[in-house]
Amino acid sequence: MVALFIIVVMGLLVAALSRLVISSSSMVSTEVLGARAFFAAQSGLELGLAELYPLQRKTSASDSTAIGEPMVCEVKDYVFSVAGLAQCKAQVSCVESDDTNTGIRHYYLTSIGSCGEGSYTSSRTLEMEVWQ
Fold first, then answer.
1. What pTM was computed for the model?
2. Which of 34, 97, 108, 127 sits CB 3.0–4.6 Å from 122 for a disulfide?
3. Are 88 and 80 in contact (CB under 8 A)?
4. Residues 6+ apart with CB under 8 A from 49
5. How far apart are the C-alpha atoms of 109 and 97, rounded to whole Å?
6. What is the pLDDT of residues 99-131, one digit of tens each?
7. Can you tell me the distance from the alpha carbon of 119 to that of 31, in angstroms, rounded to the nearest whole number?
């Protein structure tokens, strides 16, 4: 009788510990996907900012791209293929507004980074304001 009781108690203890290990593994996976989604969103903001303010100089008089001249504000999708951001993408949207009092042009960039597939996905949203 005592042996049966010990076997039942040990079985319940093993079941509880295995459930705890599975839960911990799932939380680590979610945390890793969340960090990767954050970096995908940050990379999307940086890519959007680089397209908004390109660093190339005029090559001819007809070239409209120069330092300090912003590009058109639009929605862009980026899919990353580097090892650290595999299965990650970022969608960057841009809103432009002018301050009529000062004449300063404001840009509001929003980047939504998402990583993973199926039921294991995570997304993060970052925003940035820049002005010229």
1. 0.72
2. 34
3. yes
4. 109, 128, 130
5. 12
6. 777 778 888 999 999 998 888 889 999 999 998
7. 14
